């Protein structure tokens, strides 16, 4: 849980940094490529190929390709179709995908996870809903593509970790995750990127460096490690904790307007979903013992 809370605080800054300094100014495909490249460089020195069998390497690369490469491609394109509030609103469905995919991959059905995930969606919706335009459906589907990729990457990582030794030094193999993302990000930039829209200021380069080295490099490693240490319900709920966290950062640092009562109400609803999930997990443990 500590991993997820820490990364939530870290990623809370990313939305504002992208929206203020990069969106509409720097080519999105280049931004994705540079983030993935820098994150790869963080873990490349630690990579020990002998620690993973071939099929596990390919699995980890596939997860990186989906969770980072394809997800970012969808996510950045959504800003061309939707307003920022609409993009944020439509990301709140990720917990439902996590709950359903986790049960599917682990061969079970856990109704309480669906209930708590829906509560997290309601809480995030209370915070972010500002109304939508009539022509938003294409953008909605693009965001759902990003949500599904992010959810599948997290749940797939949990499933892969369950098949590997608990003593595995993940920092010595996680480079494969970013190499997989590179397999998507590099061709995407070469095919669709705009070389005339590269960063032009040191601030933009600095933001991209932070996003690549810290938010992507350290962030995705810590988040996926956290995903293996909690139950699916908690993971689903924490995916929407970014909404209030991001709004708080935006309000405090960039002084953007925020509806404080709605922010507090939505945060309370998500806290209630976490409490309900924790209560159910404790009750299940007592019943098993």
TrEMBL record:
PANTHER family: ACYL-MALONYL CONDENSING ENZYME-RELATED, BIOTIN TRANSPORTER
Keywords from the UniProt entry: Cell membrane, Membrane, Repeat, Transmembrane, Transmembrane helix, Transport
Annotated transmembrane regions: 29-46, 58-75, 81-100, 112-129, 135-157, 169-191, 203-223, 235-254, 260-280
Subcellular location: Cell membrane
Boundaries of every EamA domain copy: 3-127, 139-276
NCBIfam families: 2A78 (TIGR00950)
A Pfam family the protein falls into: EamA
Any one GO cellular component localisation term in the record: plasma membrane
Name by which UniProt lists this protein: DMT family transporter
Record membrane topology: Multi-pass membrane protein
Major subcellular location class: membrane
InterPro entries registered for this protein in UniProt: CO/AA/NH_transpt, EamA_dom, EmrE-like
């Amino acid at each position: 849980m500590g991993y997820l809370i820490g990364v939530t605080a870290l990623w809370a800054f990313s939305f504002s940094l992208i929206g203020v300094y990069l969106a509409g100014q720097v080519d999105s495909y280049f931004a994705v490529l540079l983030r993935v490249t820098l994150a790869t460089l963080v873990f490349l020195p630690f990579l020990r190929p002998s620690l993973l069998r071939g099929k596990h390497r390919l699995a980890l690369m596939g997860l990186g390709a989906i969770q980072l490469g394809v997800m970012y491609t969808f996510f950045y394109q959504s800003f061309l179709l939707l307003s920022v509030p609409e993009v944020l609103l439509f990301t709140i469905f990720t917990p439902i995908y996590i709950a359903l995919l986790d049960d599917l991959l682990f061969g079970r059905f856990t109704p309480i996870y669906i209930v708590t995930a829906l509560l997290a969606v309601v809480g995030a919706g209370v915070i972010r809903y500002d109304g939508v335009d009539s022509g938003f459906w294409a953008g909605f589907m693009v965001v759902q593509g990003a949500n599904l990729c992010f959810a599948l990457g997290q749940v797939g990582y949990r499933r892969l970790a369950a098949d590997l030794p608990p003593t595995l030094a993940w920092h010595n193999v996680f480079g494969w995750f970013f190499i997989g993302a590179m397999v998507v990000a590099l061709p995407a930039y070469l095919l669709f990127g705009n070389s005339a829209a590269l960063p032009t200021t040191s601030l933009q380069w600095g933001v991209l460096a932070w996003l690549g080295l810290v938010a992507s490099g350290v962030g995705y490693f810590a988040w996926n490690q956290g995903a293996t240490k909690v139950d699916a319900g908690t993971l689903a709920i924490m995916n929407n904790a970014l909404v209030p966290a991001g709004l708080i950062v935006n309000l405090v640092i960039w002084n953007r307007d925020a509806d404080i009562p709605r922010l507090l109400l939505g945060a309370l609803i998500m806290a209630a979903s976490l409490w309900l999930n924790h209560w159910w997990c404790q009750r299940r443990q007592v019943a098993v013992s």
